[in-house]
């Protein structure tokens, strides 16, 4: 077989503010690969199938704390959670035809790895689209599930505020909270997203761009739980409107700060002490060993039967990855943005 194009989207420069396609990232088709003869050196050759576009990727474009380098390497493909299919293997832990999932799937059509460490083989898709395994049944689903199970300590009748509630994590938290009998206040940045929140059962859904978050929380609070995807001023307002004692703040993301040169600094931190607020930052990978088996048992059936709802915004073609990164940061995506690089 003649060599084929091995397109990739590479990291080109650290963005100032929002990432810019063609500047922050560059789509490159100059490389080719011989799929039959590419040396494996005991590893495997895989074809990238699906890439998840998650908000945290913006942080990896910045200089990493304690270093003088960004999280991505200049001139090299970006990487993210995704799925790939093994084409050839000299590694006994994987074989041709296996679908693997991992957090270091490159923005590249084909790639070689020395070993399968860090990847898992997905054996059963429960007759659901594979793309769900990087969305509602992937990292975002894991994040919402383990954070809720570990830190929410929810009680029926309590009030929760979920920011960025139309996203792939926030929309699941909304549904978990309703299943547990909570009053849900949910915010999003567009009217179509607010309509989606109401469809999911939010008791109070509002567009923070056209309605005052401060007024909504003052009217609908106090808050027993805040699930934070935004940080910044929204976190400050949640602190101010927390219940007098014992509220729980689950710190999942702070997208309001990701693209700012001078991020908002908290003014209401003293309420953490005054109101005895428990603040729990968490990373899904740390909690997955504890809750992963429960997730795998519970979530796929709920998704398959429609008891857990989700939105997926899929684009086809690696050339759209750079624009997708910008879209997610600007909040123009409803649900989970995935890039379909190839079919199985």
Radius of gyration (Å): 21 Å
Mean pLDDT over the full residue set: 95
CATH domain topology of the largest domain: Quinone Oxidoreductase, Chain A, domain 1
Shape: globular
**Which spans have pLDDT < 50 for at least 5 consecutive residues?**
none
Q: Determine the CATH superfamily of the largest domain.
A: Medium-chain alcohol dehydrogenases, catalytic domain
**Count of domain modules:** 2
Major β-sheet, in short? 7 strands, mixed
Order of helices and strands: EEEEEEEEEHEHEHEHEHEHHEHEHE
- Our estimate of the beta-strand percent is 15-25%
End-to-end C-alpha gap? 19 Å
Number of helices: 9
The top level CATH class name of the largest domain: Alpha Beta
Structural class: alpha/beta
Q: Could you say what the CATH architecture of the largest domain is?
A: Alpha-Beta Complex
Total count of strands? 17
Set out the fold topology.
Layout: E1 4-5, E2 8-11, E3 25-28, E4 32-33, E5 44-52, E6 79-89, E7 99-106, E8 110-113, E9 119-121, H1 139-152, E10 159-162, H2 170-179, E11 183-188, H3 191-200, E12 204-207, H4 213-220, E13 225-228, H5 232-240, E14 248-251, H6 255-258, H7 270-274, E15 278-281, H8 284-304, E16 312-316, H9 321-330, E17 336-340
Parallel strand pairs: 10-11, 10-13, 11-12, 13-14, 14-15, 16-17
Antiparallel strand pairs: 1-4, 2-3, 5-6, 5-8, 5-17, 6-7, 7-9
Helix pairs in contact: 1-2, 1-8
